[in-house]
Amino acid sequence: MIENALPVAIGNYVGLSAVLFFIGLTGVLIRRNPLVMLMSIELMFNAANLLFLAFARAWVHNAGHIFAFLVITVAAAEAAIGLAIVVAVFRDAPFVDVDEVRLLKG
Amino acid sequence: MTPLHHATLGVDGTYPLLLGLWLLPLLGAVLCWTFGPQLKAAAGWLATGFLGCSFAATVLSWPAGTQLIGGAHGAHQALLSWLPGLDFGLLLDPLSLLWALVITGVGFLIHLYSIGYMHGDRAFARFFAYMNFFVFAMLTLVLSDNFIGLLVGWGLVGLASYFLIGFWFERPSAVAAARKAFVLNVVGDVGIMAAVFIIVAHVGSIGFGDVFAASPGFGTGVLFAICGLLFVGAAAKSAQIPLHTWLPDAMEGPTPVSALIHAATMVTAGVYLIARCAPLWSASPNAQLLVGSIGAATALAGALLGMVQWDIKRILAYSTMSQIGYMIMGVGVGAYDGGVAHFLTHAFFKAQLFLGSGLIIHALANEQDVRRMGGLRSKMPFAFVAMATGVVAICGVPGFSGYFSKDRVIYGTLEHGHPWLFGVAVVTAGITAYYMFRMLFVTFMGEYRGDVDHVHLPDWTMNLPVGILIVPTIGIGWLMFGGDASPWNRFFAGQFASGAPVTQPAISEGLTTWIVLAVVAAGIGIAYLRYGTATASADAPARLEREAASVPPVLANAFYFDAIIDALFVRTSQGLGRFLGQTADPLLVDGAVRETALSAGWLGALTRSFQTGLVRAYALVLVAGAACLIAYYALAPGAFR
Asked: Distance from the CA of B529 to the CA of which of A38, B218, B381, B596 falls in 20 to 30 A?
């Protein structure tokens, strides 16, 4: 049984994943273009995936791989639905800006 | 105590004719009501015909009503059984037979009269529908063999009375009078209802026979409560003080209505109730004293007020009130046969007087003020004869019907140990003679003071009933002549066993008769001197105006009963209503509703402000929440065990 199958220390993966996640989060919060927001969300998914896979390798445990596939599936579904909404909402709009779409304002 | 008819007959007695005579007027009412526009003038004849059949059935029932079965008189028809002890049925015994005969007989004559009187009224069929409905309701009242059936009839006659007082509903005064009558009568209905509650609680049955059989077991208090509450109903229906104020106002109705409902039949329902409940009253001396005193007070008050009226129908209304006071006094103290006898004679002579006054009112284009009449004896000799016989009968002139019955009541008060009531009754007899002859003289003697050029003489449908009524007005009293051997006493043998005299009066019946006659003669004499002589009628218009202006305020305001009732009940109710409507309701009910709505709106406005519709704002909240969650687990002691 190999104790640590990773050539690089696990802390590096965690750090990279955190940086990617916060880049994605910042993108979601500050960008107003829905496509860029979706891309940022993908970035957050992938940060999570990186973490799953790193720990799967580190601990030699396949659950991480399985969760990574699950996340990829969810990300695909999210992208499909998200893009569909974006297309539906902005089909008639002369702009591409989520702040202008406030139909749910109470 | 008298064994009671249907109690021995049981609830399975059958006498189907009773159903017929009871329901025929209802059928007439339904037909007149439904097919009124098609029937037009035929509605009057239809209603009169149905009532005539009902009267014929009543006459045919005479042998059944007086037959002797199981130690008691009468016939019984079971209707339905509701709960154990609560059986409904119809009972025809001498008492209800008498009432049914008067209701259908006098009712028939008054229906016939109405065909002429109401001719041309645009609601001709509606009038007869109401009249037939009234007869049905009154028959329900008197034929019921139980208290609840009686109460149903009691309420229905009140309703019919309301309909008919307010018959000309385009007149605000008629509507007000109808409403007043209805409200005061409902006060009475509530009294009877309360009495029925007590009866059911103590007896568990509503049949007259069961209740009277159980009555010796009642305590004095319970008995007095039942009698007192029943009398509240009787007082309201029979216009006894202090619930009498509706009767004079009820004269807003058409004159035949006044004759049938507010003179001959409905207003005597109280007399019937007390006579029916004779075993209860006889067992409760307190109730006897109360009812006798109120009857006497009403008799006197009605007579005093009758002296100062100028509207011919109001004179008759107050005389009705006064005469019913006599009846209530009679049945109240225990002289049941006397009170009931006075009911019978009064039904005839008062119907006669009202119909007679209707002849005049009809002829003079709805003139009711006697000051604008006068000298009608030559213009309307038949009306004069009719009114004169009625007046003579009501005054108790010997030989006429009122003499016999009033004599029985007056002597009955002595026989049952109430000399004070005797005194009041005698004085009232004198006042009665005065104001009735005053009406007669002012109306028929002297010169005509009105402005109607052509006297419109009524047709035969109006004259015939009045002519027929003259016969019993004069003669019916002779049935009561002859003491215990008289047809009257034999008819009621056993019915009023509890009403036997309790004392031997100090003065004989003959002497009391002479006293009454002297007082009556004095009353007539004073009326003649004031209104009948040639000098009195010389400057009649001016003199009558002067007299009208000098009426004592206490009489002009009818002893302030209206004002007192107004202040005590109407004003307080209105005040309470105003307080509830203008203060309590907006503050409490409306306030609570409004505050609930407002706070919901306020809460909505608050939560609405969070819904910005900005996707990025939501995302920020999401992130902040997640950050808080993570921070909690990261910082909490023991996290990541």
From this structure: B381
Q: What's the CA gap between B220 and B71, in Å, rounded?
A: 28
**Which B-chain residues 571-610 have CB contacts (< 8 A) with chain A?**
607-610
| Per-residue tokens: B410 | 């007056």
Token pair 């009226």 is at which residue? B309
pTM over 0.80? The answer is no
pLDDT in tens, B194-220: 999 999 888 888 888 888 888 888 888
Query: Which chain B residue shows the shortest CA-CA distance from A30?
Result: B616
Query: What is the distance in angstroms between the Cα of A37 and the nearest Cα belonging to chain B?
Result: 10
Q: Residue B196: CB partners within 8 Å, gap ≥ 6? A: B147, B148, B151, B206
CA distance B168 to B619: 78
Look-up of token digits 């049914």: B100
Report the C-alpha gap between B465 and B467 in whole angstroms: 5
Closest CA to B447 of B378, B384, B391, B363: B378
3-state secondary structure of B73: strand
Q: Which two tokens stand for residue B357?
A: 């006054």
Q: Do the chains contact at B614 and A28, CB–CB below 8 Å?
A: no
Element (H, E) at B79: strand B75-83
Q: Which CATH number fits domain A10-95: 1.10.287.3510, 2.70.70.10, 1.20.1420.30, 3.40.50.150?
A: 1.10.287.3510
Q: How far apart are CA B15 and CA B20, in angstroms?
A: 10
Chain B positions touching A98 (Cβ under 8 A) are 614-616
Residue B641, min C-alpha distance to chain A (Å):
18
CB proximity B634 to A under 8 Å: no
Q: What is the DSSP string of B1-40?
A: -PPPHHHHH-TT---THHHHHHHHHHHHHHHHHHSHHHHT
Cα distances from B589 to residues A103, B384, B577, B578, B580, in angstroms, run: 39, 64, 14, 15, 10
Each residue of A46-102: pLDDT tens digit?
A: 999 999 999 998 888 889 999 999 999 999 999 999 999 888 888 887 888 888 887
